[in-house]
Design brief:
The complex is a heterotrimer. Chain A is mostly helical. Chain A has one domain. Chain A contains 2 helices and no strands. Chain A starts with 6 loop residues before the first helix and ends with a helix. Chain B is mainly alpha-helical. Chain B has one domain. The longest helix of chain B is centred in the middle third of the chain and has 30 residues. Chain B is elongated, with a radius of gyration of 18 Å. Chain C is mostly helical. The chains are: A mainly alpha, B mainly alpha, C mainly alpha. Chains B and C meet through helix 8 and helix 9 of B and helix 5 and helix 6 of C. Chain B: GO terms for molecular function: heme transmembrane transporter activity. Chain B: Its main location: membrane. Chain B: Belongs to the CcmB/CycW/HelB family. Chain B: Required for the export of heme to the periplasm for the biogenesis of c-type cytochromes.
Chain lengths: 67, 221, 245
């Protein structure tokens, strides 16, 4: 059963709206930031590895063609 | 354990040559103590009230200051690497470091405590408590700072990192030492606090050298 | 048992296992979190004393519980890393520390937002709040130490050692803070009575706690994958993987 009568009442949280939404907002922001940052790190890491690999291969090719 | 004496002699000789290593933290301690009255005002009662906290925070910071350079030179010169590689008893090296670190940073604070009592208007019971807590507490400070220094030996940015690692571990000591002094100013018994400090000291004495050993080993491998 | 655990010490196996588990764990965590929080926010009656502000409990309590649970998980991983020299365990310490730090920060922020309407101030030097703050410092120490070395592997080992030292100290710190707290202030605030919680409020709370737990596992999977890649750069299987991207 839904406790609140209307959406505006839900937002007001019986006068404690600011505190409730502040904490939920902060929580979700922090969690989302952590998830996004972890994904970003993973992708960055793979990309760097691929770049490094390509560079190594280029150097190898260059050495082979010049010798 | 025969080596312990040799290592202590070596450390003391080094300290005698590099006086800044142990003089600077002591000077820092005195300067911090002088700054507090300038910051909060020279009211004697206020100072007496705040003295436990002031003294112990100053002591923590000055020991921290000394800790940073504890293993740095030996690491850079390759002494630690040689000791690990030669399978020398690293434990006596660590113990010698501990002893000399206390002698060079902890003991001066104990010896300076009469001056501190003068500066902060401490009465005799509080001064006795200060002396006792410093005697029991500074070895523990040395133990923890040696651990922090060993962990960060090969780190690129040691200084501020060391503070972040070690200061949270100092908190119990800070609490009990200042509580003992506070109890002394109110003429209450403070054996309990001293006993807990002694317990923490013995506990740390049993475990910290082992942690320091493995910290040094992982830093050179 | 050891035979069953043994493949888990092999980075490649762990990498692929985490990759397979991650989407499901994440999906489960998000579902549980939304379920628990929406239930708790909209479908439970308000507390008779605290009104609607008590709804913060649905994130405050899970994050506080899991901030400590994450520390013990990290300490167990660190212990395994130190005793058996399992590399995957060392990297888990690095992967898990930021999760714990974020949980601890959430517990602190929500605790403050709860304290303002209830106690009248954002911050009180309450024993639990103070311990939580010190816990955050311990996490930050582990994170800072892991990034301070030019050699990644040394950083991982040093962080493991620090985590173990921290977990030995944690009870001492907690006990002394509690003692200090009762010495310094009357029990007016700390004793704010914990009423036996109504089952209608308990269920969403339990779901939220489970959600934070699963989210920790999911993030651990994701972050451990990155840590494995970073430390195993020179292995053939990592090169094959990177070449395929």
């Amino acid at each position: 059963m839904m406790h609140f009568q209307s959406f505006s009442e839900f937002l007001a949280m019986g006068g404690y709206g600011f505190f409730v939404w502040l904490s939920f907002g902060a929580t979700y922001t922090l969690l989302l930031a952590l998830v996004v940052y972890s994904h970003f790190q993973q992708r960055q890491c793979l990309k760097q590895l691929a770049d490094k690999l390509a560079r190594e291969q280029r150097i190898k090719q260059y050495q082979e063609s010049s010798s | 354990m025969v080596k312990l004496g040799v290592f202590i002699q070596r450390e003391l000789r080094l300290l005698a040559r590099q006086k800044a290593d142990w003089l600077n933290p002591v000077l820092f301690f005195i300067i911090v103590l002088c700054l507090f009255p300038l910051g909060v005002g020279p009211e004697p009662n206020l100072l007496r009230l705040m003295a436990p906290g002031i003294v112990w925070i100053a002591a923590l910071l000055s020991v921290l200051l000394a800790a940073e350079r504890l293993f740095k030179d030996d690491y850079r010169n390759g002494v630690i690497e040689q000791l690990v590689a030669a399978r020398q008893p690293l434990l006596s090296f660590v113990l010698a470091k501990l002893v000399t670190n206390w002698l060079s940073t902890g003991l001066p604070l104990v010896l300076l405590s009469p001056l501190v009592a003068l500066l902060l208007n401490l009465e005799t019971p509080a001064f006795v408590a200060l002396l006792l807590t410093l005697l029991l507490g500074t070895p523990l400070l040395s133990l923890l700072s040696v651990l922090g220094a060993a962990l960060t030996v090969s780190a690129d940015k040691g200084g501020i990192l060391l503070a972040l690692l070690i200061l949270p571990l100092y908190i119990p000591l800070l609490i009990f030492a200042s509580a003992a002094m506070e109890a002394a100013t109110m003429a209450l018994p403070y054996h309990g606090q001293l006993a807990i400090m002694l317990a923490m000291l013995l506990f740390a004495l049993a475990l910290v050298p082992l942690a320091v050993l493995s910290a040094l080993k992982l830093n050179v491998s | 048992m050891f035979k069953w655990l043994h493949p888990l010490a092999k980075p490649e196996t762990v990498y692929h296992l985490c990759g397979r588990l991650y989407p499901w764990l994440m999906l489960l965590a998000v579902t549980l979190l939304l379920l628990g929080n929406i239930w708790g926010l909209a479908f439970t009656p308000p507390d008779y004393q605290q009104g609607d502000s008590y709804r913060i409990i649905h994130i405050h309590v899970p994050s506080a519980i899991m901030s400590m649970g994450t520390y013990s998980a990290m300490a167990i991983a660190a212990f395994i890393a130190l005793v058996w020299q399992v590399k995957v365990a060392q990297w888990s310490v690095l992967a898990i520390a930021p999760i714990g730090a974020v949980y601890t920060a959430i517990a602190l922020i929500t605790g403050m937002a709860w304290g303002k309407p209830m106690w009248g101030t954002w911050w009180v030097w309450d024993a639990r709040l103070t311990s939580e703050l010190i816990l955050l410092f311990l996490y930050l120490g582990v994170i800072a130490l892991s990034g301070a070395f030019s050699d990644r592997q040394t950083g991982a080992k040093a962080s493991s050692l620090l985590a173990v030292v921290g977990v030995i100290n944690l009870p001492i710190i907690h006990f002394s803070v509690e003692w200090w707290n009762t010495l310094h202030q009357g029990a007016s605030i700390t004793k704010f009575a914990k009423p036996s919680i109504d089952p209608s409020m308990l269920w969403p709370l339990l779901i939220s706690i489970l959600a934070f737990k699963v989210l920790m596992l999911a993030l651990l999977c994701l972050r451990l994958r990155t840590a494995i890649l970073q430390h195993e750069q020179h292995r053939p299987w990592v090169k094959a993987l990177a070449g395929a991207v």
